[in-house]
Structure formats: structure tokens, C-alpha cells
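Quick one, T. Sequence first:
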Amino acid sequence: MKKSVVYIVHTAFWVLYFLLLLLIIAAATKGFSSNIPFGYIAKVGFSFVVIPSVITFYLCYFYLFTKYIKTKKIVSSLVYAILFSVGSALVGGLFLSLLFGLDMMFKGGISSFLAQLFSMVLIGLLAGVMSIIINGFITWYDEIKLKEELIIKNHQIELALVKAQLDPHFLFNTINNIDALILKDPKIASEYLNKLSDILRFMLFETKAQRIDLSKEIEYIEKYIALQKTRTANESFVHFTLNGNLSNQVIPPMLLISFIENAFKHTANKKIENAITISLNIDDKTIVFECENKYNPKNKIQIEHSGIGNNLIRKRIELLYPQKHNLSIINLNNSYRVTLTLIND
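C-alpha cells:
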């Protein structure tokens, strides 16, 4: 909690505390209409109430709570709380004696002294309990904020891992395919090499931004698909459609590619048509992404894809689009379909 807020909490407590004290004094003196001088009331109140309260409050706040209560040393906490209250009561009694003489504390004998001292001890204990409650609330709040910050930091690390993710099998196979094309068709090999270079450049530079133009993300996806197609002679293996206006549309980098990577990874039969279908529908307020891939039911496939996993992808989307997205994953009839709807402000 910010120091300014802590100061406000302390100030508010003491304002309310002294207002309550004034009300009690006003009730005892019939609205200050009795013959008791106000200066006398102020001196007695300062010594009898203020001194024990303030001393015990801050001893419990700065020392007792930190050293004993937080470490759950209950017995030691009680002992020290009583000692602090008795000590602050004795200081208050000393002030009363200095202001009004020893008769103020001992005019009724030792029993009067003990009764007044006991009253000041109770007042001090009450203030000490309030200090523990206030410090406990501040500590609880700080721990919640710390946990939230740690969760955010953890998510940020996860996001960095997502952005940095490049399937090593994809990279290995692409380089091998380009190597095989160099002798067969150097021109096409050069085109594919440029696409791979563009993908690596995109990952190095574009992913540092929180948001990029949707058009750049789509360029990355198209080049990725083109490189994946080098692994099969089936031109209809992948079907990608784009509908809508890309102008002024932005998106977090590499948000969609993870689903596409998983689709390629789990589609074994590359000879069938439209084994993978990808569509992107865009309007002014929403981006609807769909990716569906067919797979062989004999191959083991989990609803949670391997690799970075859908849990991590979900976390990233939830962090970037809180309450502004809908993610649907359906695994049915040998088909795995992902539908992601993003709502833009």
C-alpha cells in the first residue's frame, strides 16, 4: 500500500478516535456545561487517554506486529502487549502527577492509583488491538497486491516464451526442403528462403511490441503456411480465407499462429484436400479466427495439444483480452476446431 494511503488510514483512525473521546467527555460533562474548566479536562484527557493510546498503538504497530504476531508467537505477543500497556499507563500517570501533583493519582490511596492505572492499561490495550487490526489489514492488502504482481510477472514471462516459440521441427524441415530445392529450382528455393528470413525477422523485431497491425500478423501466417506447403505436393492441403477490412486493425503479435502450428503438427495425412482450413473474418469491432484440422483417430491426440499447450495460450488471451474474448475448442468426428473471437475497443 502506498505510504500516502497508509498516512490517510492512520489519520482517519486518530480523527475518529478523538471524536469518540470528545463525545464521551461531552456526555460526562453534560455538553461541557459543568463547572470543570476545559483546560483541566484537556490535561486529564491528554495524560489519561492520549498518552497510553498513542504509545501502545505504535509500539504494537511497529514492533509487536512485525516481530511476534506475524511470526505467530501468540504467548509472547500477549505478554508484550500487556507490558506495553502497563508501561504506557505508567507514563500517562507520570504526566498526571507532573501536571496536578501526586494527589491526582493517590488521593484515594493505593486502591485509587491501581484503579486509574488499570483504566489506562485497558485504554492502551484497546489502542494496541486497533493498531494490530490496521497493520494486519495493510499487510493483507500488500500481500494481495504482491501476489497479483507476481502473477502478472509470471504471465509476462509466459508471454515472452509464447512469442519466442518457433517449432524446431518446422525450422529443421523447412531448411531441409529449401536445401533440396536449391539444385532442383534455385529461384523457388530463394523465394522460400526469403520467406523464412521474413519469419525470423518478424519474430526478432515485431514481437517486441504489445500490438502490431493485423496485416503484419497475416503476412506472417501466409508465409508460414507457404513454407509448410513445401512439405507436400498437395496444393489443396491447406485452405486459408480472409474476409473484412484490415485497416486500423491491431492484434498482439503471434496470437493466432500457435493454433495454426498445432494444426499442422497434428495433421498426419497431407494428401487429403482441406486437411487444414483457416479463416479470418474481420469487422469494425470483432476479429473471428477459426482453425480446423482433420486427424487420424488412430493417432493419440489430446484436447490439450502438446507444445506450448492450450492452457498457456488461454492464459495469454485472458491477460490480453479480459472479458473481451471467446475461445471455443471442439474435438469431434476426427476434427479439431478452434474458434477465437476477439472484441476490439
